[in-house]
């Protein structure tokens, strides 16, 4: 769990160092703006933005029972963040698998993408879809789907 916080903490520390330097040079406004930017990047890369990840086998089992999509993702992926943000509250209905924490999940992604770990890879009804449109994924969550 601690590894997931390394990048966000590094961003906060770097932002603090840059802001301190700018304040010492007499640019507090620029320092505040950059610090907010670093904090935003840290928040987007933190484990807080993604729902809790589960293992690939558990996600596939749950998906078979409830029919919900499985999203294979990794921290720092801008396309994964875009999908998460665009899904909004619906993101909690999806089963999330962090491929950096689950070797079985990484294997599923490589099998679906010609050996590449291209994420997000969304599996719906057993069929993988690489970097699908977030609106399409949201449609898969609707009760009529």
TrEMBL record:
<dbReference type="InterPro" id="IPR036249">
    <property type="entry name" value="Thioredoxin-like_sf"/>
</dbReference>
<feature type="domain" description="Glutaredoxin">
    <location>
        <begin position="70"/>
        <end position="127"/>
    </location>
</feature>
<keyword id="KW-1133">Transmembrane helix</keyword>
<dbReference type="Pfam" id="PF00462">
    <property type="entry name" value="Glutaredoxin"/>
</dbReference>
<dbReference type="InterPro" id="IPR051548">
    <property type="entry name" value="Grx-like_ET"/>
</dbReference>
<feature type="region of interest" description="Disordered">
    <location>
        <begin position="126"/>
        <end position="145"/>
    </location>
</feature>
<keyword id="KW-0812">Transmembrane</keyword>
<dbReference type="InterPro" id="IPR002109">
    <property type="entry name" value="Glutaredoxin"/>
</dbReference>
<protein>
    <submittedName>
        <fullName>Glutaredoxin domain-containing protein</fullName>
    </submittedName>
</protein>
<keyword id="KW-0472">Membrane</keyword>
<feature type="transmembrane region" description="Helical">
    <location>
        <begin position="29"/>
        <end position="50"/>
    </location>
</feature>
């Amino acid at each position: 769990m601690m590894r997931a916080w390394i990048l966000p903490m590094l961003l906060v520390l770097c932002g603090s160092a840059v802001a301190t330097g700018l304040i010492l040079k007499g640019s507090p406004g620029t320092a505040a703006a950059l610090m907010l930017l670093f904090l935003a990047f840290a928040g987007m890369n933190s484990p807080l933005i993604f729902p809790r990840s589960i293992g690939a086998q558990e996600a596939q089992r749950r998906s078979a029972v409830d029919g919900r999509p499985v999203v294979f993702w990794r921290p720092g992926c801008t396309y994964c963040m875009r999908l998460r943000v665009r899904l909004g509250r619906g993101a909690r209905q999806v089963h999330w698998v962090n491929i950096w924490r689950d070797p079985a999940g990484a294997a599923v992604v490589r099998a679906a993408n010609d050996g590449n770990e291209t994420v997000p890879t969304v599996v719906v009804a057993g069929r993988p879809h690489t970097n699908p449109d977030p609106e399409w994924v949201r449609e898969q969550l609707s009760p009529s789907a």
